[in-house]
């Protein structure tokens, strides 16, 4: 499964007011593994950023003045997101801006060029109702370091969101069984098994009915092999 973790930075809050995208960052994952095949592009918006937006991303008009425009990279962008699920935090914001850029070029909408769009903010709110679910808050909750994030950046935020997404959708965090590509320390099967703390797990002993059913099953197996089952010759503590 191919997934793209995507983020943008913009000159302001509303594309309907003429605000534009100034940075796109997108990180590729295939089968829940980062491929390092990323898409990152600064864009010349042909306008200044609002002071509030500039304080967030720090991308000045001077810095962006020699960068390509969206129309110059649109084909590469569409090719990159094609056939993938896009995972975007607060997807409505980024989608509105990308849709506006595509509309200027008569290229449809973002959803026309990808498999589907998943809003990680909505997923986080369902998992953690009543709690803060900003990217910073989720990094803290899942113990993902964002100490190097002093300003917002589309590529950095996509990388952090990718780590958060894996943590949110991993399932049982304490029972870790993962595939090790190298097979190191994993035996022939290439499995890496995390250390487990079993001290807090409840042990439910079998009741009399379950024990009787188990004994009947073993008796049938023993009968099928002519009474030569190895466990019948072992002390019960070893079986």
Automatic annotation (TrEMBL):
Its cofactor is Mn(2+); Mg(2+). Pfam families: RNase_T. Its EC number is 2.7.7.7. Binds 2 divalent metal cations. Magnesium or manganese. Substrate binds at residues 7, 9, 57, 157. It is an enzyme of class 2 (transferase). Residues 2-174 form the Exonuclease domain. SMART domains: EXOIII. Signal peptide: none annotated. The keyword Chaperone does not apply. SUPFAM superfamilies: Ribonuclease H-like (SSF53098). It catalyses: DNA(n) + a 2'-deoxyribonucleoside 5'-triphosphate = DNA(n+1) + diphosphate. GO terms for molecular function: 3'-5' exonuclease activity; DNA binding; DNA-directed DNA polymerase activity; metal ion binding. A divalent metal cation binds at residues 7, 9, 157. The keyword Nucleotide-binding does not apply. The active site is at 152 (proton acceptor). One of its GO terms (biological process) is DNA replication proofreading. Keywords: DNA replication, DNA-directed DNA polymerase, Exonuclease, Hydrolase, Magnesium, Manganese, Metal-binding, Nuclease, Nucleotidyltransferase, Transferase. One of its GO terms (cellular component) is cytosol. InterPro entries: DnaQ (IPR006054), DnaQ_proteo (IPR006309), Ribonucl_H (IPR013520), RNaseH-like_sf (IPR012337), RNaseH_sf (IPR036397). NCBIfam families: dnaq, dnaQ_proteo, PRK05711.1. DNA polymerase III contains a core (composed of alpha, epsilon and theta chains) that associates with a tau subunit. This core dimerizes to form the POLIII' complex. PolIII' associates with the gamma complex (composed of gamma, delta, delta', psi and chi chains) and with the beta chain to form the complete DNA polymerase III complex. DNA polymerase III is a complex, multichain enzyme responsible for most of the replicative synthesis in bacteria. The epsilon subunit contain the editing function and is a proofreading 3'-5' exonuclease. This is DNA polymerase III subunit epsilon.
């Amino acid at each position: 499964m191919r997934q793209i973790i995507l983020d943008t930075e913009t000159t302001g809050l509303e594309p309907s007011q003429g605000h534009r995208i100034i940075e796109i960052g997108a990180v590729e994952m295939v089968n829940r593994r980062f491929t390092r095949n990323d898409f990152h592009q600064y864009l010349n918006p042909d306008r200044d950023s609002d002071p509030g937006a500039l304080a967030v991303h720090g991308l000045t008009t001077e810095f962006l003045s020699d960068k390509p425009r969206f129309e110059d990279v649109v084909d590469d962008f569409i090719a990159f997101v094609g056939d993938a699920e896009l995972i975007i935090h607060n997807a409505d914001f980024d989608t509105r801006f990308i849709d506006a850029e595509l509309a200027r070029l008569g290229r449809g909408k973002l959803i026309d060029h990808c498999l589907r769009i998943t809003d990680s903010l909505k997923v986080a709110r369902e998992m953690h109702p009543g709690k803060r679910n900003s990217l910073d808050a989720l990094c803290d909750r899942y113990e993902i370091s964002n100490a190097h994030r002093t300003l917002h950046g589309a590529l950095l935020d996509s990388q952090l969101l990718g780590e958060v997404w894996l943590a949110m959708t991993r399932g049982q965090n304490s029972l870790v069984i993962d595939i090790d590509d190298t097979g190191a320390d994993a035996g022939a099967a290439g499995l890496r098994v995390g250390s487990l703390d079993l001290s807090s797990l409840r042990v439910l002993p079998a009741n009399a009915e379950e024990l009787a059913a188990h004994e009947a099953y073993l008796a049938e197996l023993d009968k099928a092999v002519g009474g030569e089952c190895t466990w019948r010759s072992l002390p019960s503590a070893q079986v």
